[in-house]
Design goal:
The complex is a heterodimer of chains A (621) and B (252). Chain A is α/β, with parallel strands linked by helices and 621 residues long. Among the domains of chain A are: 226 residues, no CATH class; 170 residues, Transcription Regulator spoIIAA, CATH 3.30.750. In chain A, 33% of the residues lie in helices and 14% in strands. Chain A has 20 helices and 19 strands. In chain A, the strands form 6 sheets. Chain A has a 6-stranded mixed β-sheet. A 4-stranded parallel β-sheet of chain A has the order 15-16-17-18, covered by helices on one side. In chain A, strand 13, helix 10 and strand 14 form a beta-alpha-beta unit. In chain A, helix 5 packs across helix 17. The longest helix of chain A has 19 residues. The radius of gyration of chain A is 25 Å and the shape is globular. Chain B is α+β, with helices and mostly antiparallel strands and 252 residues long. Chain B has 2 domains: 114 residues, Pseudouridine synthase I, catalytic domain, N-terminal subdomain (Alpha-Beta Plaits, 2-Layer Sandwich), CATH 3.30.70.580; 113 residues, 2-Layer Sandwich (Alpha-Beta Plaits). Chain B has 6 helices and 13 strands. The chains are: A alpha/beta (621), B alpha+beta (252). The interface between A and B is medium-sized, with 30 and 35 residues.
Chain lengths: 621, 252
């Protein structure tokens, strides 16, 4: 019988014990005697969130295809179990074997969003691994980070041995072979880290020194070891069709956020929205072969028994074979009671037709993400969506029987004026007017336009990486302007407005563009008891304020100044393929509200063409 | 065609709740390619119903769900097909054909269930079993001899006092366990933990001092062949027969 790390008493006391027992269909068990490397793959958030992440599923499958590696999953224990584990001194364990994480060779932690950083410390702490890399011994697992936030790893530099910069399918085999060889040769971890630094894409933070100018900005970032390269190059899969894809994803017992088969149709995005980090990091856009996707869809539905399949990409409408794929999914699976969901679709005649066909008569709400209210502001962010397109799309949807629309905007974008803020409720009202143009006897009651705003956070490797943010109070004041704007609208009774928390925004800003020094802020906040900061019911801003006060970290330095053209950024040692020159050109075009064409219309010379694949070379094939 | 699936639940899967077991079986149907029928309408769902929910932490060797098939399939092969796609901890025991009429569905006919209650060295593990304490064993007769056994039963909104004596069809203490045969289903339902709490209270014991494990052995229905006023109406195997026994093997 399967052994469990937690005893019955605990399992019957905590919320959702199924989070911790493993044993799910398609989870991988291996014979310890027959593997050389034990890899604990961690998503530092609760099980339901972590299990919904495609990247981990891809890597889990890839690692476990290798006979010498056993990859297991680790998630953050929820606060109820966290407390019990601390009280009873129970070490954090991996789900498959239920063995302590400390017994593993590697602990890989995916860095998906800044607000899970305290959970990384929680995971290390509960595992019994020293929080700071410098304090670890030969007995501790190698702690490696990857994922989007690894593109500015500096706030986490003290807590990780290695960072993997880029897509996981590329150099992991090399990294693990090196580990085996080093172990066989009797090498130390230090030896291993030095050799690992020579693998393209691997960043070893302990091998670099940082100095600062008097004004607090970065003065220099240089290797302190001959093995460490000056720049670390992003790793990328050039042919997505030929790489790994999990055809037997793990099927959770409990309902998770993404409780369906996920088909990644492409990586990257041709659009070049200037606020979007993913759109810059994953350049160039690469598509998966449609025939292969059809085969995956069949296999994955069969192997999981899921009743829903969803397409995943940054902008599904730009996938060149979308119509063919969608037709196939509908013909093949609709009759078998399988739901088909198509997020990130632009609203136009094609997508409305598709939605009509996949959703039967139950019409859910339509989502538009104009991101900015005025055309000027949309030009600044290079969101190539015009008011006319939005109104036409909404009009078609209303004519097709929809009456609920969700709108997403950002506040606090560079150059934003009061006029731009007021344009948000005005646009929502125009959409409502479009609805009420339909004769009363032909429309379906009242319409409901729900508008949500979040506050813009500049991210590294985007054209807006130089932009300033604002204070908490300023953000709330901007949301208040929008709120008042809604009260002035003709159709205000059909309009609803929600805005995001400003406190979390401000913190996320500090970690997104922070340097090595903000690591101590993180450590202090964790010591004061912060975990699960992304969860409003757990988030404790007062503790964070106390951490700022005691560490002397100046929030305004990180958030409330526009960075100089020549400022050296903590992440500049990473080469993503997209050049800083291009980003700066885009920043300047943004200041002039100039639109840049998308990758298929015209190449803007961002630098990603050097990878030799994807959209950059499409027409030349 | 309607079919009844009997399965057992053990090991780590006893921590999976009833709703998740339902979701689990929906996915099993697809993985195992069972030709299950769907309801009509705008959001079709599988025609599937469970006889009796099982509490979290309880193990069982006799759980049931009824499904509707679009075409007949052979019992033996279907059991094998389903077990090939299972997680360790749920196993299909049998697959039988049942009558079409609604009144024979598992949910409607469930009338009783039997349980094995074991005493544990600690609540930490259901594996370390202690003998049934002698002083408790001796009290079973006296406990059952009471004309009424009043307990507080929690309802959705409040608590109410009910007499559970008529819902206890049998209670026998052995050296290793206490065996219970209790009313179950929509009409009268007695949970074994509620009974054990009443019993320990009767013996003057704190329930916290006696960590228990419950194992459901099977679920029973009224035997249509026995008249409603028969003496042996509540006797296992006579007036009450297992849900499985009401079905027929489907041969290929």
């Amino acid at each position: 019988m399967r052994k469990l790390a937690l005893n019955d008493e605990i399992l019957l006391k905590i919320e959702k014990p199924a989070r911790y027992i493993g044993n799910e269909v398609n989870s991988v068990m291996k014979d310890l005697e027959k593997v050389d490397i034990r890899f604990a793959m961690c998503f530092p958030d609760v099980y339901e969130i972590g299990m919904s992440h495609l990247g981990i599923q891809i890597l889990y499958d890839m690692f476990n295809q290798w006979e010498d590696v056993w990859c297991e999953r680790v998630y953050s224990p929820w606060v109820d179990l966290d407390r019990i584990m601390r009280e009873e001194d129970i070490p954090l364990f991996a789900l498959e074997s239920q063995d302590p994480v400390k017994d593993f060779d590697f602990l890989g932690i995916t860095l998906q969003y800044e607000m899970c950083y305290t959970n990384i410390l929680q995971v290390l702490d509960l595992s019994g691994i020293p929080l700071e890399a410098a304090e670890r011994t030969e007995e501790d697992p190698v702690v490696i980070g990857g994922g989007p936030c690894a593109y500015n790893p500096e706030p986490l530099a003290e807590f990780f041995d290695l960072f993997y910069i880029g897509e996981g399918e590329t150099v992991y085999r090399e990294l693990l072979d090196l580990y085996k060889k080093n172990k066989a040769d009797g090498g130390t971890k230090k030896n291993y880290f030095e050799k690992a630094a020579e693998i393209e894409g691997i960043y070893v933070p302990s091998l670099y020194d940082v100095t600062y100018n008097e004004d607090g900005t970065l003065a220099a970032f240089v290797p302190n070891n001959p093995h460490a390269p000056r720049t670390v190059k992003k790793q990328m899969v050039s042919d997505l069709t030929m790489t790994y894809y999990p055809q037997k994803p793990v099927v959770p017992f409990i309902k998770v956020t993404q409780d369906r088969v996920v088909l990644e149709i492409q990586r990257g995005c041709i659009r070049g929205c200037r606020f979007c980090q993913a759109g810059m990091l994953y350049r160039p856009t690469r598509e998966r072969d449609v025939e292969k996707l059809k085969e995956y869809a069949r296999q994955m539905l069969k192997n999981t028994g899921h009743e829903e399949i969803s397409l995943s990409s940054l902008s599904s409408s730009d996938y060149s074979r979308l119509k063919e794929l969608v037709d196939f999914l509908i013909d093949e699976f609709k009759g078998k009671g399988i739901n088909i969901s198509l997020p990130s679709l632009r609203i136009d005649a094609f997508s409305l037709d598709v939605m009509e066909r996949v959703q039967d008569i139950r019409k859910s709400s339509l989502t538009f993400a104009p991101e900015a209210g005025s055309q000027r502001m949309r030009n600044v962010i290079n969101k190539g969506l015009t008011e006319e397109e939005i109104l036409t799309g909404a009009g078609q949807a209303f004519a097709g029987g929809w009456n609920k629309v969700k709108l997403y905007f950002m506040l606090g974008l560079p150059t934003e004026t009061e006029e731009d803020m007021r344009a948000i409720p005005e646009l929502a009202d125009k959409i409502a007017r479009k609805y009420y143009e339909i004769p009363k006897d032909q429309r379906n009651g009242k319409c409901q336009i729900t508008t949500s705003t979040s506050f813009f956070i500049p991210k590294p490797f985007t054209p807006f990486q130089w932009a300033r943010m604002y204070s908490n109070e300023e953000y709330i004041a901007r949301a208040a302007i929008v709120k008042h704007g809604f009260n002035d609208q003709l159709n205000r009774k059909s309009l609803k407005y929600n805005w995001h928390d400003a406190e979390i925004t401000v913190l996320e800003g500090v970690f997104a563009r922070g340097d090595r020094r903000v690591g101590k802020l993180l450590l202090e906040a964790y010591r004061l008891g912060c975990i699960y900061d992304a969860w409003t019911e757990v988030f404790d801003y007062e503790k964070w304020l106390a951490a700022f006060a005691s560490t002397g970290i100046d929030l305004a330095f990180y958030n409330e100044r526009e960075r100089g053209e020549d400022e050296l950024f903590p992440w500049d040692f990473i080469d993503t393929g997209v050049t800083k020159d291009f980003l700066r050109r885009e920043w300047e075009r943004a200041m002039n509200a100039e639109v840049t064409p998308n990758c298929r219309e015209k190449c803007s010379g961002c630098g990603a063409a050097r990878f030799g694949g994807g959209v950059c070379h499409e027409s030349k094939n | 065609m309607k079919a009844r699936i009997k399965f057992c639940k053990y090991g780590s899967l006893r921590f999976i709740g009833h709703l998740d077991v339902m979701r689990y079986f929906q996915k099993v149907m697809r993985r195992a390619d069972i030709p299950i029928a769907f309801t009509g309408g705008y959001s079709p769902h599988m025609i599937m119903s469970f006889a009796q929910p099982l509490g979290v932490g309880v193990t069982s060797s006799g759980e049931y769900l009824d499904i509707e098939l679009t075409k007949p399939v052979a019992s033996k092969q279907t059991v094998a097909q389903m077990n090939a796609v299972m997680a360790e901890g749920i196993e299909v025991v049998s697959f039988v054909k049942i009558p079409e009429e609604k009144k024979y569905s598992g949910m409607t006919i469930t009338a009783a269930a039997d349980y094995r209650v074991t005493f544990l060295a600690s609540g930490r593990s259901a594996e370390k079993i202690c003998p049934v304490p002698e002083d408790l064993k001796e009290q079973v007769k006296a406990f059952l001899a009471q004309p009424k056994i009043k307990v507080l039963k929690a309802t959705k909104r409040s608590e109410k006092e009910v007499d559970i004596r008529p819902m206890i069809y049998a209670m026998e203490a052995g050296d290793e366990d206490i065996r219970l045969f209790l009313a179950a289903g929509s009409e009268n339902n007695l949970k074994p933990d509620l009974l054990m709490e009443a019993f320990l209270g009767f013996c003057g014991k704190e329930k916290e001092a006696y960590p228990l494990h419950f194992h459901r052995m099977d679920v029973y229905a009224r035997n249509p062949a026995i008249p409603a006023d028969a003496m042996e109406r509540n006797k296992k195997g006579v007036g009450l027969v297992t849900l499985e026994s009401l079905g027929k093997e489907i041969t290929g």
